[in-house]
Design a protein that fits this description.
The chain is an alpha/beta fold. It has seven helices and 13 strands. The chain has a single domain, classed as Metallo-beta-lactamase, Chain A (4-Layer Sandwich). A seven-stranded mixed beta sheet has the order 7-8-9-10-11-12-13, covered by helices on one side. A six-stranded mixed beta sheet has the order 1-2-3-4-5-6. Strand 8 and strand 9 form a beta hairpin. The longest helix is centred in the middle third of the chain and has 10 residues. The protein is globular.
Length: about 240
């Protein structure tokens, strides 16, 4: 199974507009972070998790020609704003793109993109098929997707386990009954917004506590802001099996 980090930045990305901090002025390409999103591939199956404002650029950079399905963690703009660009895959493959999310999120999508689901559609709008995540494992091709309930402050969101990879973005707490889904991992991908505590995201210390608790081989940090520091500085603050 192949995992591609399409973006690892927070909702503003890095560099941040109009910011002159050392991170935003850095010339190190590792300090350039698009909005957080992930792509998972197995054979001919290709899943993208979240389609934020950078989705078009992410697809072009990675030369993606088709998508089997899109998983949406939650309805915040930095995770759904790029949904309209899925129409390019409709044109290329002549197929609808399946969208998987919980019902609350599907409702937001239909309200935010009403022209996509209108009775009399304008030619060329995205062709999206909506599928509800109920909390139970489901199948996309040969990939089994196990939803992991997380809390993003007071907002319930989903992380996902696919094989031995777990993806936990936009999380401030993990309900007790969900920890068993994080057993026997090879790779843990986890939210680490900044150094200081935050109301709706893990900070670095909290992310490292989860990493220490979960038995796995390697971890990557995502949803990082410029307040976390430069890549070279973050590397000095994390264990050798953790990567920003």
């Amino acid at each position: 199974m192949k995992v591609t980090f399409l973006g690892t930045g927070t909702s503003q990305g890095i560099p941040v507009i109009a910011c002159e901090c050392d991170v935003c002025r850095s010339q190190d390409p590792r300090d350039k972070r698009l909005r957080t999103a992930l792509m998972v591939e197995e054979g001919n199956d290709r899943i993208v998790i979240d389609t934020g404002p950078d989705f078009r650029q992410q697809m072009l950079t990675n030369k993606v020609k088709h998508i089997s399905a899109v998983l949406i963690t939650h309805e915040h703009n930095d995770h759904i704003a790029g949904l309209d660009d899925l129409r390019s895959f409709n044109f290329a493959t002549r197929k609808s793109v399946p969208i998987w999310a919980e019902q609350r999120v599907l409702n937001v999508i239909t309200n935010q993109f009403p022209y996509v689901f209108a009775e009399n559609k304008y030619p060329g709008v995205p062709d999206l098929s909506l599928n509800e995540i109920s909390g139970q494992p489901f199948q996309i091709g040969d990939l089994t997707i196990e939803p992991i309930r997380l809390m993003h402050y007071k907002l319930p969101v989903y992380g996902f386990r696919i094989g031995k990879v777990a993806y936990l973005t936009d999380v401030s707490s993990i309900p007790a009954e969900q920890w068993s889904k994080l057993e026997n991992l090879d790779l843990l991908i986890i939210d680490a917004l900044r150094i200081k505590p935050h109301i709706s995201h893990f900070n670095l210390e909290q992310a490292l506590e989860v990493i220490e608790k979960v038995q796995h081989k390697k971890s990557f940090l995502v949803h990082m802001s410029h307040y976390l520091g430069k890549h070279t500085d973050i590397m000095k603050m994390v264990p050798e099996n953790v990567f920003p």
